[in-house]
Specification:
88 residues, mainly alpha, Arc Repressor Mutant, subunit A, 3-stranded antiparallel beta sheet
Length: 88
């Protein structure tokens, strides 16, 4: 029942974020973070131990703000854009 409630809340948040881009933080689970970073869920667990910012929701559930995750990843692994801005 609690899991269903969280699933419904996430669906509502995802829908509202599509309309209100940039005004509400996008909180997602480990699977979405793994997909955004192009890694597996186990790697997200390892990143959490290394300092990846996350929020605890209840006893077990963790949520991530995608903007904070991207900023942490770029800062920690010194990622930088290579190539020209116009894509050529």
């Amino acid at each position: 029942m609690v899991i269903d409630l969280f699933a419904q809340m996430n669906a509502i948040i995802d829908q509202s974020n599509e309309v209100l881009t940039g005004t509400i933080p996008t909180f997602v689970g480990k699977q979405r973070v793994a997909a955004a970073l192009g890694c597996c869920v186990r790697s997200v667990d390892n990143f959490m131990q290394r300092g990846l910012p996350y929020y605890k929701a209840g006893h077990r559930q963790v949520r991530f703000d995608l903007e904070e995750v991207r900023a942490w990843y770029k800062r920690t692994y010194r990622c930088q854009r290579i190539g020209r801005e116009d894509g050529q």
